[in-house]
PIG-L family deacetylase
Amino acid sequence: MNIKDLVPTPELRRARNVLVIFPHPDDAELVAGGTVALLTGEGATVTYAPVTDGGMGSFDPRASREEVSRLRRKEQAEAAGILGVSHIEWLGFEDGRVPEPETLRKSMVSLIRRVRPDFVITLDPWLPYEAHPDHRRTAMAAVEACLFAPLPLAYPEDLDKGFLPWQVTGIALALSTHPNTFINIEKTWDKKIQAILCHRSQFPEEVWNTFFPYILAKSQEYGKEIGAKVAEVFKVLSPTHLHVMVDTWRV
Ligand SMILES: [Zn+2]
């Protein structure tokens, strides 16, 4: 028996209700914007869950957190609109002060039980050189939440509110160093770039001029693997891969 048949890798392209959990406005567009646009174009419902409002995202010493977060919420809503994202669920944590996964995952479990997604897209929590605590904690809490959401005795207060246990089919980890799923985003590349550029506060011209060649080169390199001009990549796993059969992660 082939282990791939025993624990099949779920197919991201077949997802029809997707929850994207990410730390800051702009992260989702950068790592998964092309895939999100493809999915919504094929009829999927996509909900964004930014953990913070990005209120620390400014180099201007005169800027206030309130001003920055107001602007970034607006930019995020605009970007989501371009990609066909229908709902944004702001989790309301402070940028730069995202708590440890143990505290954070409660709100994600509730969210998963409310949205009932077949797929969760988040960042890969096992990136060897990721230094930003918001990124590490968000990603780890999101995968933990996928494991806890189906268990009625985990955060049982949700059940009283009518949010019933929910099992996701697949978890797609973006920016993975061990991707197993390459998505051709030629058709949605322009939308992805347009959506990234909605985050005007983060990509003024001088930043964009150095950042764009990076994102293009990376997308082209991924694309080569599948004979496409540009691609996004994910490590796609089922909840079983993430706990019960953790030694099958290479499939
Ligand atoms: Zn970020």
